[in-house]
## 1
Amino acid sequence: MEPASQVSYFAALELPEQLSIDRKDLEARFYRLSRTLHPDRFARAAPEEQQRALDASALLNDAYRVLRDPVARAEYLLSLRGLVPADSKYVPPELLEEVFELNMALEEVKMGDREAIPQLRQSHKSFQQMLAETDHGLESDFSAWDSTQNPELLDRLRARLNHRKYISNLLRETEKALESHVSD
Amino acid sequence: MFQIDFGKSEESILGIDLGTTNSLAAVMEPAGPRILTGIVPSIVAVTGDNTVVAGEAARTILLHHPERAIYSAKRLMGKGIKDVEAERFNFVAATDQAVDSVVRIAAGGRIFTPPEVGAMVLRELKHLAEEATGETYSKAVITVPAYFNDAQRQATKDAGRIAGLEVLRLVNEPTAAALAYGLDKRKAGIVAVYDLGGGTFDISILKLQEGIFEVLATNGDTHLGGDDIDNLLIQVALEDIASEWHTDLSNSAEAMELLRRSVITAKERLSFELSVDLEFEWNGRKYQRTLSREVFQKLIEGIVNRTLGPCRQCIKDSGVSVDQIDEVVMVGGSSRIPMVRNAVEVLFRARPHTDLNPDEVVALGAAVQAGILGGSVENQLLLDVTPLSLGIETMGGIVSRIIERNSTIPASASETFTTSVDGQKNVRIHVVQGERELSKDNRSLLVFDLKDIDPLPAGLPRVEVRFLIDANGILSVTARDAHTGREQSMDVKPSYGLSEEQVEAMIESAFENAEADFAARQAAEARVEAESILAASAKAKTSNAWSFLSKEDQHAIERAEADLVQAKESSDHRVIKGKIEALDHATQALAENIMNSAVQGALKGTHI
């Protein structure tokens, strides 16, 4: 038997390496496998068997946690192919203007200028929209890769994931600023 | 020939709710879980003859000799002396604390660690359960607050081992409550469990589906509960008393304990009445204050509100909306307070469930989990989560999270470490638990040193460390050289808690003394009971009712008293118990007389 750490998350859930996964089906697999693998089922077994159940169950839970989240799932698949997500610290060129304006607004709000709040709200809305668009793009990347397994698609996927990570960071920052300055 | 009885069923596993204030044990039976012990106070005390008792007997001692008793020790589980400085425990020993990281508790001239105190309560529960069924129990499922960290869980497990129990599983209290409820209603849905106990608060949101109990998120405060409400009321009474009597009672442990009893009674009655009288007598003086529910609610508003923040965070983390939550289950004695119920109803927009006794539901659930482990409950499975994120300290004291909170357990994560200097042989790693950015703001769990790394240029060695949180929520760490696959040697130093050697030594001494201890304890318990019945009898003799008794009856009582005073010194509890019963019997007529005159007195509107 392979050591638990060598088994891929896809294999742990008895799935092929694919990007589009149905949540309901994934949950059903997780519950079914949990029923047989969970340490509770081995409370009266020998210590080695208990240890094996513990390892198998940890792998199953880790796998479910990653695969049920589309972004984490895609990043995981990239890592299996030796592709590390690029550094998300650089600003994607297409976002330069947005980021510049947002930073100005954030700075003003921090200084106590409440007039910048509508600007923040506007940014918040547009980031939400961008995120939705990116997610839409991800979905089409997913199905394209699932049907062709064309390695070039992975580069596109990686770029889109970076783009998404950047937007969601901006979104989080905007939300935090709105929460702390609008409530009071 | 050998006769092997294959038909004999396996030993039952106890389900134990080890609470801050009270504890209970239950077992799973074919008809469902059943409480075996009744409510046992989580109190440990040292008797006048230096025997350690737990439960009811210890509570009697707490009332009259508080300096010999320990209560609410669960609040000290898995803590260091720094953590408890802010607590107003009069029994935390201040000396000898630097030796290691476990709090020492002094009572009756002896020193205990919190796991040892927990072990005494567990042993009492074990004995009571064994008395109730005639079976022997050596295995248990013990519940812990869902928000307990690694050190607190480890301390609870140590307590079980010291008590001679193999702890098969630690189960989170709110999850146990859900299991107890789930037995009756096997339906799909989202359930929130709100658990406000004596010392801790937990909130958990679960998804139920075909016997699977999947915890989606949990949150809480291990330092919030009924004790805090009691302390507020005590504060109010102390201020009143200080201005009325011009005395500060807070230095008298006995007065404080009596006052605590009084405020608890008032608090409990306020759940059913709109106004109560808070009454307290000390040294012949009487303090009385009318307390309306309205005033009470204003007083505890802050405490109730403190439970709502964790609830909101838990809803957010669970990924469900409030509307999707079908039911809310209320657990813990403080969930009886109407204001608490209202707040929960408003927040969750669902009627709180109170069908099961909130004091018993956790122990019942622990018994269900015991049934799952023992194999008698087949279709149910609990998938719980870790309440706090696990992280490692990186450059600048910043935490890098490796297992996020609310991850289903068992959960694991692997990290690869390397060296920063050529030829470096050791790497030190600090593991913390919590949600804060900086390492120092989180709970330190352990420090481990990877040792004997091959002396290579900086950055070349690769040591893969695997962090594994088991189904009890307890962390273990293993390491291997990623190049060779060989196991990497390391030293692990837990930041809090007893060492393996300390636990072993405690188990050994408990085992050696088990039989003698048990007999001595039973005698000591009987002695405590004897003293309290003798005191009651002495008091009764000063009442009017005494003079209405025949000379014969009076003699009989005095003889029974003398017998008991003599028997009290026996080391056999049965001898003492026998004389207690005799005195009890002899004083029956007297007790009835007192009751009658009390009733008559009440009818006349006078006090006796």
## 2
Amino acid sequence: MRRNRRGRFFRRLLWLTGGIVSACSLLFLATVLASDSAPDHVPSYVSWTAETVTAASSGDAFRGMLLARRCDHCHGAEGFSDRASTPNLAGIDKLAVWKQLQDFRSHKRISRVMEPIAGSLSSQDVEDVVAYYAKLPVFTDLQDNRAFPQARPDANHTAVALHLVSFGDGGRGIPPCQACHGPVGYRPGVPSLMTQNSEYLFNQLSAFANRERANDINMAMRTISTLLTEDERHALAEYYGAGLGLQPGSSK
Amino acid sequence: MNWRKLRVFLLTVLALCLIPATRWYQIDEPILRYFRASHDVDPLALHLSGEFVESNLGTEQNSDGSVTVRMIAQQYLFVPHCVLVPAGVPVHLRVTSADAVHSLAFNGTEYNIKVLPGTISASRLQFARPGEYKTMCREFCGAGHYAMRSALKVVPRDQFPALQPGERGTCAAQ
């Protein structure tokens, strides 16, 4: 009687384990098959939840300063690059640089130079470097910034760019740049362009328009840069690259 | 029991209930869904998975001849920026917001669809005549609100491209 009962218990246990194991494997197979059947293009794995924002903005700037010494060669010791095709990082919002580094790490943004460098950093390193660059000063008096501006304002282009930056183009549905890139409004992960290099900006706008760069969430910059003409892309890049975004009064 | 106090209380409650009833015509269906907290989608993760991933935006051909259009409204853009639909066919519009409250209005029609984050605003539209309708945001959404415009192109049914089941149509592809 007693042995019989124990046998029944073990048989039930066997059935239960078998059931659980087979259910788990079926579930696993189903998820694998489902992920195979829907190859959606994900622009970036970053999503601006509260946890992401906290993680991206909790770096140690001092440790970042030590780590950032290997960025000096291209991005400059003070965050201003000597080459106009390389972005300036001085004073740039933490979330913006953090997102780009995450995208380089997950190969969502393509760069032969930056992908291996970002891949060699740990999550903590990324947070720290980002915190360091956000602390570097940007001076409104352009003479005080190192290697910036590198472009000269062009009178014809400036008027076009100033209109796009401050008003956009309602007829074509182009929003004003300053509504998201500052100083009027900011959105999480959107960089300030006020001290950005002209050639870099033009390359990025073109890359968005040609879909060579596709790591913008919900296709915002891909849509806008497709609406801009090539002349307007040049004008905008020159406007910011000449430091006019930092000193809007000087454009008159 | 103080009947006088109870009567005053009940009348107050009744009067308060009447306020939304008199303004019922101003309340949109998506807003009610929003307050019922029936969150259909995560506005911060639209691009990661679900109905509003990039490859699913645009016009989808249904088997019954109607089309489904999926759009995202965000500060300060509608994506896709230009939508292509055939004329005289039911258009099932499904739109959601990635950030603030927007509204999707088609100039020259009475359609004005409120778009809220976390909620899918589903509506059935029909455009009889071919042409281009300007689309605009009619709910103040921030500094770039007045430039938040796009277009809806209505083409005759024979000019609308035949879409494969996985394919989504926009003006750019035409």
## 3
Amino acid sequence: MEEKLIDKLLLIGKSVPSLLIGTLISIELALAFLGFGFVVGIPLAVGEVYGNKFVKYLTVLPIVEFFRSIPALVLLFLFYFGASSLNLNFSPFIAALLAMGFRSAAYQSQIFRGAIQSIDVGQMLAARSIGMSKFKAIRYIILPQALRISIPSWSNEYASVLKDTSLVYALGITELMRQGRYIVARTFGNAILVYVVCALIYFLVVHFGVKLLDFLEERYKIPGYEIKKVTTRA
Amino acid sequence: MAQTILKVEDIHKSYGKTEVIKGVSFKVKKGETKVIIGPSGTGKSTLLRCINQLDYLDKGRVWLEDVEISKSPIDINQIRASIGFVFQSFNLFTHLTALDNVRIGPMRVKGMKEKEATKIALEELKRVGLEDKKDHYPAQLSGGQQQRVSIARALSMNPKLILFDEPTSALDPELIGEVLEVMSKLAKEGVTMIVVSHEMGFAHSVANDIIFMDGGIILEEGPPQQIFKNPKHERTAKFLSKITQLEGEKAK
Amino acid sequence: MNFLEFAWNILPTLLKGSLVSIELTILAISIGLLLGIPLSLGRVYGNRFIYACTTIYVEAFRGTPVLTQLFILYFGLPSIGIMFPPFTAAVIGLGLNSAAYQAEYFRGAIQAIKGGQMLAARSIGMNTIKSIRYIVLPQMFRLVIPSWSNELILLLKASSIAYMIQVSELVSVGRQIASQNFRTFEVFLVIAFIYFVIVEILNRILHSVERKIKIPGL
């Protein structure tokens, strides 16, 4: 009996490095998807709020609807197989980045749109009244406020994206779940232990990430100004 | 003869089917303080917003000094940088300190360097009596203080004239005084101002010229003594008596 | 064969796959409903122990990926002797997961009603159970419809993850077709289209249901 316990512990010990690598890859992926989503999401939101009807109904909304109605897994396969059918050489990582990045952009654009629309109309009026162009007003007055307001909802998005990185397993990328799979294959059993540990790792990374975002929210709070929490998708 | 800073000719403006401004014309000279009074909803605020085009004119022309600013193509941002606007609801930028609120115009619109813009901002804050609040955020200031900062923000752009849209109407009574004090001071210093207001005491003692608007047109125009003592129109007299009745009761 | 012809050819097979996805979704959301309501009541009205247990459940399922949960059920449990067929594992996994999210939606709705309504119910002599049954729950159901509709759609999309544990739903059927003719990209274009259409239709239906059930003024 003792032998088995020691074996098990050694097993866990040997697996830790692979799990750590997998975790790091998952975090990297999440940050990449979120970053891409942020950079694309802001113009989408600004276009939806301030753009003309063409921009809003023929460009922004179709993109947002497309990436929100279709399951993440299907998006991953679309981009991955789409690339080879168009004779482009995409690594699985690039396919995943585009699929999950645009998806996050669609969701983030709605967060930012809500935040922008919740800002009092007088802010834009005041900015224009001192001679700022629409662009300057958006850049110096609207966005700084909108981004602060978005932090709680953005927390949800972080959690979602991190959990969704598990899906890139389907493209063969060696993130945490795949590392788990390899460990199960290498060690012939204890699948439940390995996968529960993976679940635990996801839980911790999500939890501490959200705590970090809460800290940032406090730090960058506008003094005296209460920001209401708005929760969006699960 | 003092220079004409603003000329407004035959302004018309409708919201949907309702015509709110039905043909308004007047001139404002340099250093003049013009106060527009009249019943609520008669287009006074709309008129101000039409001057710097925060609202669009349906018909009519506006000249700033010798430049016709109602004719396109013009750089509306440059025009707005030369016309100051003080809002009824202050509209200070909530994410910026008082100092940042006042210097963002010179820095980001006029392209000044931070050092120079800060110097100007501090001067204007001093002018409205709030230099010690420079690092406070709007949410940490009282209504009267916020409005004074917004006046400093308008001043820091060195505008040719300043438009005041009911600057004290959203303030608690005990805070109105500090704002009117600043405005009187500016009038004495020769700042060209158009003020839409219900504050008759201010109109009486500080205005060079008063315009009475009712039903979308100018019913009467003249110096305070004439308007208050010898109004030409019955409606002017009626309006004034109602207001002074209220003021008298307030004073009691 | 051009794309449209091809799409038309594979559509019947794909639609059969989508029926499995829909079946999976309906079963899972029902489990989520049946389990989610007691969970939410536990979170709002329960004593410290019940609160702790339900919170652990909710946090565990919401804080970890669906894929991991399905792997534990399908690949993990066999190592301690419990073996589920793919579809069953998927239904259980998605159902338990949905219960956690639904519990939070119901909890939010109850807390939006709580205060004065409960007091009023008590004041006319109702005990806690009656108050919950006749006053809180009816209002809660109406308040929760927007989030619940959202959950239904999220679950439909999540059903695609069941592909990873060998359930023959839409994505799985698609890959089977693709393995025979290698036109994978086009197959997935059709799959994407099917999901898009189903989601749009669901959205419309749910919105009109929402409007009809709405309590005026609430």
## 4
Amino acid sequence: MTLRDRWRKIVNFVMLSLTGVCAVVAVSMLFLILGYLVYNGWKSLDWNFFTKLPLAPGETGGGMANAIVGSVDIVALATLFGLPVGFMAGVYLAEFGGKTFSGLVRYTADLLNGVPSIVIGIFAWTVVVRPMHGFSALAGAFALGLILIPITARSTEQFMVSVPQTLREGALALGASKWKSIATVVVPAAYRGIATGMILGVARIAGETAPLLFTSLNNQFWSNGLTQETASLPYMIFIRAISPYDDWRRSAWAAGMVLLVGVLLANIAARLILSRGIEVQK
Amino acid sequence: MASPATTSARSPSGARAFFARLASGDEIARLITLAFACGILLLTVALVWQLWVHSAAARHKFGLGFLTGTDWDPVSGQFGALPFIYGTVITSAVGLLIAVPLGVGAAIFLAELAQPRLSSAFTFFIELLAAVPSVIYGVFAIFTLVPLMRDYVEPFLKRTLGFLPIFSGYILGVGYLTAGVILSVMTLPFIISISREALLEVPVEQREAALALGATRWESTWHVVVPWARLGIFGSIFLALARALGETMAVTMVIGNDPTIHASLFAPGYAIAAILANEFTEATGDLYQGSLIALGLVLFLLTIVINALARLLIVATTRRGSAHP
Amino acid sequence: MTMGTAKVPSPSSAAGKPVTQPGKLKAVNLNFYYGNYKALHDISLEVPANRITALIGPSGCGKSTFLRTLNRISETIHNTRVEGQVLLDDENVLTVDVTALRRRVGMVFQKSNPFPKSIFDNVAYGLKVNGFRGSLKDAVERSLQRAALWDEVKDKLQKSAYALSGGQQQRLCIARALAVDPEVLLLDEPCSALDPIATAKIEDLLFTLKDQCTIVIVTHNMQQAARVADRTGFFLLGKLIEYNTTEIIFKTPTKQETEDYITGRFG
């Protein structure tokens, strides 16, 4: 083997090994973050965490019950607002739309998708908080719903379009009207993908903090309604993590662990649903 | 009264047909879904409108000079965007500088070298990384990355490359470099995922042709496969850039919150998203609020442009069957 | 001068090449597995130097799989296994350095696959990657001449390879493979995507090449094998049923399966 060939073999081995190293580094990041939070957060996780209100630094026995409930409330509201809008828009894009108008809607949905969530928060502030002269869960839900809409619309469209045309034609040939064929044949055929998209979308907004920073803000206590400032898990994590108090930081780890595990489980579940659906179809 | 059996995918036009569609419920369904689709358009227009209108105070006072102003002083009413634009761009650039080689390298491994099952498993975990909320990255960064940078990485860089202005200066742990590093972790899954798909689309005959001529695996990958997939790879980079520009929580937590421009990467700085996160609720007065919203407008425009470029590149890869030089 | 020393010869030595070269290829008890599936059963076959050997058989019979083990391009698929030996000049290619092997044994693929580069860069690629020292221009011109493509492209060497017609692209791929001066050229159904005129051009080309090269061609077109090959091997279900001079295979085959295939009793 000539010298040049030997060099080429060395380069080959080194570069290919490096790519393997890159892949390992990338994969390990997930486990590093998860491991760090579990290791540090697990110790601070107790029943109080889920049932008690937050207390001042130094006082023991506090929890994040209001933040958990608040997050659930805001996300649920956002889902109520965002999922139907996104779903219907997705149905329009997949089934009814004309070429140019659909193209415009698609482009706009992608545009909205790419807007940083903090800018969405600003928009929600101008439209809900400012007129209402106060922060509220409603505003937070509006912001999160706004993020959910384009995600849901595009994924709904994507999965409905992938339903073969023959299925639609079969229903129409049997005398079903267009909307009936969509509702009874196309949507059920695509439901796995649509559901997956929805789960992933909800998981995404559940973890968002930035849009809540000036919409629902925070609350040390239970909020008395949707028109009040409401605590949320991501916000609490943020506030406590940057605080100088040890016990608050520990609670941030615990809350972070809860949030991360929840989001990851939702993602894994969604992916399993989708992949199992593909196998079933085969 | 039209019989349902004559309804077809493309409905015939005309008044009679219209009423037929109305009777069958199709027209109503179409109008309802159309309304929601229009809703998306309306919301987006409203967003741009509100950003524009509510930043009026700042725009009228500073004009385009807002973009080049370097002072951010709520007390004296001077607001300039440059330190924040600078911070946003610098941290994103650092993030990409780290994430692109790492990400493309990992994508090459997953697409070209790894056994299919290993590749799928690795990709699964890497894509989960994209689902991790920003605030979680922030928590991780504060407690692990900042000490790591402060105690090991930045002193090392200062010792070895300290003659460069970017690696000089006081070390705090928080700052541009740390923010850039956490951004690189956050953008990594996007680069890997999209680049991997672009690489998988390269026809296997291209790689085989190079190998059959006596090229090593690396040579065939680097000379033939990667160039073929370059549009998709560039698209992934632009996408990553767009996300990095808009990332809020993780950056806010480690950038140091200093509204001045520094040459050193060790120095604390500020980003658009970060100052919005920190000061928006405290802002009083039209000018202060307007300036913050103007910053939001700048960020909005930046991400729109980069996202559009990304989409062009990615769509271009998937649409064409064979590459043309 | 052989390629065994792994140096790409300079153009000047090409002129004085002897008529018969070493470069015989021999398969000895070759078995090939995709995972647990045995695709090739105990193949033993000797390819004579400076001749055209054709491998025929119905789809899925293993002829392409066999061809691809000869330059070990089959290794690019995960989970494959080879048992037995493939000898190039009595050296087992399965154990030598694979990039050196592929400089001696070139391949042209079923569907033409030029790189998205210029015509010149396509032909030059093999030379560049293997560290050719000499005039690239001359070497490229020589290869294009050998592939009977020079006259058609000499004015547009910098143009994209994709500007050529299908038949021209395939001849470009042949030129590209010839550039590194292989002793053996493997062609995997090279004309299956081409029209009769382009096919005829390539078949003529193979006749001119066999003086300098040993050629193994896989084809599903029996008439093509009858036209160009000196020896023909008939594959069926991963086994080599019969291997002999083309005349015997087509006129007086000894095995029933061969006769059935030749006479078209199955496709």
